[in-house]
Amino acid sequence: MRIFFTGGSGKAGRYAVQHLRDLGHDVTNVDLDAPADGRSLRVDLTDAGQVASAMQAYADFDELEPGTGVPRYDAVVHFAAIPRIMIVPDNETFRINTLSTYNVIDAAVKAGVPKIVFASSETTYGICFHDGEKKPDYIPVDEDHPMVPQDSYAMSKVCNEATARSFQARSGADIYGLRINNVIEPQEYAENFPDFMAHPEKRRRNIFAYIDARDLAQMVERCLAVDGLGYEVFNVSNDDMSVNLTTDEVIARFYEGVEKRREMGETETFYDNTKAKRMVGFAPRHSWRDVLKG
């Protein structure tokens, strides 16, 4: 596939772009910080003209050789965003994230791209950046959980999901949203997780979950491989919690009184990923437990 990938220089994007290239896909990294090399474009995604032009442009010199004009993209993956609050002013977070998402999906639909995958967020459930403690309405948290966040970042992601749903209804393209949990790179297990073991309360805002960057890349791969779902959103997390406690211990310490909707495994994630497994074949392979044995 020829893939237009925004945010390919970011924490999560780097892994996904490399994974897709390793599988043989032709991936263009579209990012303000994209390197000045082949298959990369520096684009301001808040500028609709730049987005539309980039999506219908050559990605590298080899594409000039056939003499058949600019090739079309088979898929768009949109990861680029201001990644959280407290980086730029709140209104800029909201403006950049919502406008860039509109521009990317709008350009993709008008260019006839049949598959669009975009990054939403765990924050949409209103827990991560809540003022004070906010418990889930129920556990495990699935895609039907209410989304009423307080912060500009999560608000932008909720709006982006509404934008994507509307574009899908108008175009009929497959548009899948990924409600991505806290992205962890492999080296962060040794660097950060011992502290999480000692202070599990630090993981409360992430619903005690995480997603390995390599497994997130696999989720993107699966979304690109599965067609015909229309509009869908998926929680994306690893199978286990990010703390060295049992399910019952976490409930007793942090979720007392919260409705438990089904039985859960001893170390199962509270950020339910079963829909992604069922519908696109997501199969996370990594765990902090493989690094921090015992």
TrEMBL record:
Pfam families on file: Epimerase (PF01370)
Residue ranges occupied by any NAD-dependent epimerase/dehydratase domain in the UniProt entry: 4-195
Domain of life: Bacteria
SUPFAM superfamilies: NAD(P)-binding Rossmann-fold domains
Chain segments annotated as coiled-coil in the UniProt record: none
Entry-linked PANTHER family: NUCLEOSIDE-DIPHOSPHATE-SUGAR EPIMERASE, PUTATIVE-RELATED
Name of the protein in question: Nucleoside-diphosphate-sugar epimerase
Species name: Loktanella atrilutea
Classification lineage: Bacteria, Pseudomonadati, Pseudomonadota, Alphaproteobacteria, Rhodobacterales
